[in-house]
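Box 3.1 — From sequence to structure: histidine kinase
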Amino acid sequence: MSTIPARPMWLGVTLAVAVIVFAEAVGGTVDAALMISASLALLVGGLLGRGGRVLIEQRPEAGPPRRHTIAEALLANIPDPVILVDRRVVVIEANPAARRLLPGLKLRHPLSFSLRAPDVLDGIEEVLRTGSAVRTEYATRVPTERAFEVQIGALPIPDAPGGGEANVVLFLRDLTEARRLEAMRVDFVANASHELRTPLAALLGFIETLQGPAKEDARAREQFLGIMRTQAQRMTGLIDDLLSLSRIELHEHVAPTRIVDLGRIARQMVEMQAPLARERGVALTVERPDIPLPVLGDRDELLRVVENLVENAVKYGNSGGVVVVSLHRIEGAAGRGAQIELRVRDEGPGIAAEHIPRLTERFYRVDTASSRQQGGTGLGLAIVKHTLNRHRGKLIIESEPGHGTTVRVSLPEHRPDGSETTPAELPPQD
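Predicted structure (token representation):
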């Protein structure tokens, strides 16, 4: 509210008196009494006009938004659960992430109705008693297993009812992914150490034997040196696979850009694995159409994929069996591009259904003793999986005990302009 001088008030009185005197003069009725009355009216009007003020209401200018509105907006955009409770441990506020984590969480209800965690509730009581921040943990089992670090601290709110008494804020930080990665790291180190410890122990044992009792035994020396060579090759293969897996994971997010012919790669790898197949008594054949099968890929990595699949089929297929490597061009459905599919089929003992989902895990083996006897490192299919992830491909393993195994690898066909690819369009391969 504000005031301004009211000058128009006495001006209006003067004009009104002048009009009345003029009218009376025209009518011939002007006398002394009328003149005295007019003078008094002017005097009173002037006094009122000088001291009078008119009140004018002014709207206050729009100020900044209320602070609790800003706080609500901040809470809504925090991805981790945040809960605010009062001294009675009744929920005052909670952000959407907290409501998703605790569907039973309701405002103005005790927190214990929805969060049944004694460590967290005890932490709140300690914060209210001492005022010091507390950290504890909270884990859920349903619907999925998750782990949280809960940071509990006092939060005075001067504008809230209660005269600024300290409330308590709970901040829950999701540790699920970090714990999973840590468990994977621990398992990986343990498995790698175990795989290396076995051949190292064998080497040390044979070296001690050759230095001691078998020092002059030429026959034992030749036998032990052969075993030592096998164990050393096993360690070399394991280290090579670990380095390959590390390199592939480092560039897994970068898609290849070179054009390669998957048919040529498969034929080359079959020729390289032919001596191993003859040694194992396995008939190894390749079937491919007489057309280029172009894909975008890293030639060395795709060679490793085919090598691992063919080597597994030859090693773990029954002696005297057949391993067939075939390639197919499969038209895409519903306007999707065609796929180039590589199939490796063996006549081995097959794999039980419960093992198939885990075959691409590092160091996972269906038969540990047989795999080590065959010289396997337990990393071959893990390398295949990560390589195909980089190439935007797909791996499918089909097997049934007693009926062999078929492994299928699908890669998108490279068709930059939608036309048929001719052999001249493919780059020369070494």
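Summary of the box: The two ends are 91 Å apart (CA to CA).
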